[in-house]
Amino acid sequence: MEPPEVKLDPLWQDLDWAIGAMFYMGFDGTEVTPQIRTLIEDHHLGSILLTTKNLTSAQQTATLVKELQTIAHNSGHLAPLLIALDQENGGVNSLFDEDYICQFPSAMGVAATGSTELAYEVANATGKELAAVGINMIMGPVLDVLTNARYQPLGVRATGDDPQEVSQYGIAVMNGYKDAGIVTCGKHFPSYGNLDFLGSSLDMPIITETLEQLSLGALVPFRNAIREGLDAMMVGGCAIANAGMNVMHACLSDQVVDDLLRHDLGFNGVTISECLEMDALSHDIGVRGGTVMAVEAGCDLVLLCRSFAVQQEAISGLKLGIENGMISRERINLSLKRILHLKSKCTSWHKALNPPGINLLATLHPAHVSLSTRAYDKSITIMRDKGHLLPLSNTLYPEEELLLLTPLIKPLPNSAATKAAAESQGGSNEHDKRTQRSSIMSGEGVFREFGRSLARQRHGKLLHTSYTANGVRPVHENLINRAAAIIIVTADANRNLYQNGFTKHVAMMCSMLSAGGKKKSLIVVSVSSPYDFAMDKAIGTYVCTFDFTETAMSALVRALFGEFVPQGTLPGTLRKSRKVQKSRQHWLVEGWNRDRDHRGLQALVKTIEKITPPNQLCPLLGATAASFELSMTTESGEHIEESHYVVRNSSTQALFGFCSTYFYGGIGMIGALFVDPAKRNLSIGHSLHQRAMRGLLQKPGIKKLQLGLGLPGIYLGIPMSDLSEGARLKRWFANNGWDILSPRLLYTLTIRNLSNWQPPEGLLQSVQRVSFGFDLIHGSENSETVLDHVRSNAGPDVLELYRLALDDSKSCGIVRAKSPVDGALVGTVIICRPGTPLATYLPVLHAAGDMVGGILAPVVPNSPQAAIVLQGLALLGIKQNKAHRATTCVLNWVQGDERDTLLGMGFDVLDAFEELSCKPESFNQSSHG
């Protein structure tokens, strides 16, 4: 891939400077150490990763970052240091300061809110806080797809297991960071979402999926983020073993970095290796050799987290690799240009040496606290509440006791609970406290404040104890007997199996005691991975918080006691498989308002376009808001009735779903129905469909209902180019009352390289032999016979398409086929030039590329000669398209039995649809009333 246009200063000819720029290193200590000073001054280190071991507060971080940049400036660095950290929120925060730095939900917690807008806001707030203390790069977003979600250590750090949803949230987060002025680094390419773990820490986790499987799943978010402008990419330290690839370490493989990431996915940003100090990698290869391999593979920055001796070894290894001719100076210059271009996007010496610091953070903090509360409240998810136990204020009497059972788990780094636990150990100085805090094991330290909050709600009527791998003890049995309601907290029970066993044991006890007449309400709360009991229906009331920070626990208390109604939904396939507690959620459906909804519809169309896999044609590609509005009268002067509907966010004006309907000629038609991919499976489509059907069924004189239509020709029916998705949509429409047993198959065909097309041998002679007359007409002259022919053999939507073509004599014409016996029409087709105004209503003419000629809506009644008539019409259409200098030809609205005839002429299938129709009386009107 071509590097960005960056002119290299002569200083970079010095090998030591060039080598220093290609390393990305960490260090131990909350102040500048002699080691990191040496790396910056003597080895010209250009990029630094800060972690929890470096940071104690916002003020200290700003001071440290400014000092690091000052050292670089004073020692002659041409560009400021790239200074990055991990700040994923949830349980992964390198920097926390309860006075200035806000806590936000994890990636999966944010996805549970169902709002990409909120994801953007949270990321933007996080980015602004980091920028204020001088950080210019964030190690995020996490773009991994949890293909094997229940058993992956990433857990809530990832959005979920749906590639399209991960894409949408990843891009929203990326844009939030960028708009805050910091650069982004996607991770962990090619994916940590479905790893096999073989044993010890010296065994490299393995990706066993094929490239095809990765391309359809794990790589989708990376591909989409690259397209949207991702700045950098971290390549993981995992192995890949499949039929086409055998790689020991992804970040050391040119097959992964140069071939897959750069060539196949088109990434031209900065690539960063996984830390070469990781046990499995350093044990297999060694740091010197690993550094050379990483650069040879295509990595621009080599990460070494903290050991000064190892870092020096890596620098000497890269220098030796260059001196030995293993790595060329051209290769080094390529990385330098990428790194310098990245730095130019996020920093300058003025910015690096003058971070706004505490003053800006103090200004931002109140709004960020409010955003944090809103985000956590919206993330709390009640997956099941079979017994309607929630809110507890409605089901638990004041005199009854509530029991809280919490596991002994490690506190989150830099949380207030951890700090308090550290201080309670009586460390003699700040250094002692910092070194202790990340290793204290104390469930009570994490959940003590949660218990206190519950006790305050219950005026002291709370029992609280912890549980361990020792299982249900007599103390637990006694407390369970006393309490009327029990809350069990679990955290990653799939990886801490004692939690699973304990919870099931308590659930069984509660069930037996309840059957014996003792009230025992059981609520299980997962405070990390929602997969703990997601599929276990025996746990009747199941709540998920997605992390166990103080802010999350505070939101949980308010949710349990009814201060707000939790609206969170489990992300990915869990959201899709979830049985909604009510029969259906009903959304407010409003009538389309052009002035109000035009921009929202444009944005919704673009969102759906973006998530369509690259190997599939999106029917909405090329469509605009105007594509759905015909605003015309029929040939008889009758107005075409249009009623379009939206489900929208009245606060942001965003559209969650859109449905277009038309009524003319006694037929009620749905021309489009689509929903924001991030809001699917929440009954939005059902609400829109129900409203649309109610409107159509009330039309006087309605004779038929139709799903899919030729004008506007956006959805000719249910899209079937993706068979599994098409089958899902058919089931959905069947469940909503449509007859799916006798669809009409409709196709869009194409010839992509028209200049090279030649008619099959003998075709011209066959057409000439049957003596049909073919001619081309424009405008209204002789149009009546054409319209009569179409009126008799096609629906009113196709009739109106012909009428529009006849009205546009400049860019459209009609090819007619006449019987040699009596001159009667036996076939017609519309021909249109590239750039025809008809493309507004037939976006496929835009989507297929530039200079597209159209052959539209062939109407050829069944007869022994129908195939040859169709071929003759298509031949004349192709001839006209060539004459109009079209490079591509699109043949739209081809009926099922006509497809094979046209494929034999050299056309290819571009898209396939199933048009559905049924009688109005087949719908239960009461269900749409």
UniProtKB/TrEMBL annotation:
Glycoside hydrolase family 3 N-terminal domain location is 33-341
Q: Where is this region: Disordered?
A: 416-439
GO MF, one annotated term? hydrolase activity, hydrolyzing O-glycosyl compounds
> What Pfam families is this protein classified in?
Glyco_hydro_3
Give an example GO biological process: carbohydrate metabolic process
**Keywords on record:** Glycoprotein, Glycosidase, Hydrolase
Show the InterPro entries listed in the entry.
Acyl_CoA_acyltransferase, GH, Glyco_hydro_3_C_sf, Glyco_hydro_3_N, Glyco_hydro_3_N_sf, NagZ_Beta-hexosaminidase
Q: Which family does it belong to?
A: Belongs to the glycosyl hydrolase 3 family.
Protein name stated in the entry: (Trans)glycosidase
Name the species this protein comes from.
Venustampulla echinocandica
